[in-house]
Design brief:
By secondary structure, this protein is of the alpha/beta class. Helix 2 packs across helix 8 and helix 4 runs parallel beside helix 5. Helices cover 44% and strands 14% of the residues. The chain has a single domain, classed as 3-Layer(aba) Sandwich (Rossmann fold), CATH 3.40.50. A 5-stranded parallel β-sheet has the order 2-3-1-4-5, with helices on both faces. It is built from 8 helices and 5 strands, in the order αβαβααβαβααβα. The termini are far apart. The model has no long low-confidence stretch (mean pLDDT 96). The chain binds adenosine-5'-diphosphate and magnesium ion. Adenosine-5'-diphosphate binds next to helix 2 and helix 8. The site of adenosine-5'-diphosphate has 17 residues, from helix 2 and helix 8.
Amino acid sequence: MKSANIVPVQHLVTSEQRWRINGHRGGILWLTGLSASGKSTLALELERRLVLVERRAYVLDGDSIRGGLSSDLGFCAADRNENIRRVGEVAALFARAGIICITAFISPFHADRDRVRAAAPGLFHEIWVKADLEVCERRDPKGLYVKARDGEIPDFTGISSPYEEPKSPELIIETNRMSIEDCVDRLVTYAEETFSLRG
Ligand SMILES: Nc1ncnc2c1ncn2[C@@H]1O[C@H](COP(=O)(O)OP(=O)(O)O)[C@@H](O)[C@H]1O
Ligand SMILES: [Mg+2]
């Protein structure tokens, strides 16, 4: 922290009050995985399904954040660290405001994900959206793997930059074994269990 003389404010509203208004707790569903593993597809479908049953859910997606909050950052390791730090802080704010914040970022490094977990104690749920590199490369919905193989995209996760697999994620969704619908059903069940006011 660079700034001195910081005294955080104390809210006069409790988390429980916010949860009661929303009908559920807030938290972070942190989707991590290779490019084309299915993070955005599942995040947006999960958001749709939760809002349909009147849950307050909101997606933060890599490509959107990189157009705004992180438009000054690239993809070298230091910029990826900073991108995830910012997103983690924003997701923690959403979670404390009582929202179910669904994030869709490759977030390839353990240290970055662990730092977000530490910044949002008790609120962070790491969900590994898992698919083999070959499957992702075959899907290649945005043609990025082709470009990465041609050397047009430096530091591309899985090709020229590492993906550190989660060691003990709260949930693993294997998108090369299950249909999109089954993956989303599993995520909805997990969200309902996790953010329920009962239990
Ligand atoms: N079970 C599945 N879950 C998610 N996506 C899947 C699944 N099976 C196939 N796909 C396809 O894989 C692609 C994933 O792309 P995308 O969601 O943009 O990935 P990411 O955001 O992780 O880069 C989409 O074209 C999607 O239709
Ligand atoms: Mg995506």
